[in-house]
Amino acid sequence: KAGVTQTPRYLIKTRGQQVTLSCSPISGHRSVSWYQQTPGQGLQFLFEYFSETQRNKGNFPGRFSGRQFSNSRSEMNVSTLELGDSALYLCASSLAPGVTYEQYFGPGTRLTVT
Amino acid sequence: SQQGEEDPQALSIQEGENATMNCSYKTSINNLQWYRQNSGRGLVHLILIRSNEREKHSGRLRVTLDTSKKSSSLLITASRAADTASYFCATSGKEKNTGNQFYFGTGTSLTVIP
What is the largest CA-CA distance in chain A? Predict the structure, then answer.
């Protein structure tokens, strides 16, 4: 069974631009969560999607948004990029929402904002 | 914030020795999970322990949970150079309808010297 895939793996953008990251969950998994990882803040929860609906959102500004498609694939978008948005963005999938399910993480997208 | 804290922040041991990492958290949990992350890559799930469990084993891994002290420990026995990685604990709270919101700790960086 293929794992969680994220594209692109690396990205360099300029301040003020916007970016879209993609995540394909494990086949059969319907819940997708996104996390931001930085050296200073560690791993922080961004949002979680299930059945094309955002179920939960972390404490991030409105510049961070996401969506999920009917095939469970998910995208996240960051508009008006700031230097502080440079981070590793991780996507995780699980069978369903609910904290009893194991999350499987993708390799991440390394975003650098210059 | 429910974010956990791992202790120590960094640990360096010789191959063959045991490594112990601790995680403390702040609020009541449904379960606690341990993850491993190799440098700059995605997280790999290691083990999940539920709030009504006290100890779990998986291969060379042993996890304990003390809900009265709000702490957990991860023991890696007979360490190998390949165990070199960062280890994170993640807790999930008891809030209803919050989906897959996990709170990650700050991580322990383990170096196993051959």
Answer: 39
E strands present in B1-114 = 5-7, 10-14, 19-24, 29-37, 43-50, 55-58, 61-66, 71-76, 85-93, 102-104, 108-113
Q: Which of B18, B109, B105 is nearest to B70 (CA)?
A: B105
At residue B103, the pLDDT reads 83
With bands split at pLDDT 50, 70 and 90, how would you rate the model's confidence at B98?
Answer: very low
Q: Are B85 and B114 a contacting pair, CB within 8 Å?
A: no
pLDDT at A77: 98
Closest Cβ–Cβ partner in B31, B42, B43 for A99: B31
**Per-residue pLDDT reduced to its tens digit, A28-40:** 999 999 999 998 8
How far is the alpha carbon of A16 from chain B, nearest alpha carbon, in Å?
25
* A66 within 8 A of A46, measured Cβ to Cβ: yes
What pLDDT shows up at residue B42?
Answer: 84
Please answer yes or no on whether B30 and A90 come within 8 Å at the CB atom. Answer: no
Q: Which chain B residues are within 8 Å of A42, Cβ to Cβ?
A: 3, 104-107
Which chain A residue lies closest to B89 (C-alpha atoms)?
A: A43
Smallest Cα distance from B52 to chain A, Å: 13
The residue among B70, B28, B73, B24 whose CA lies nearest residue B47 is B73
Instruction: Write the pLDDT tens digit of every residue in B11-48.
Output: 999 999 999 999 998 888 888 999 999 987 889 999 99
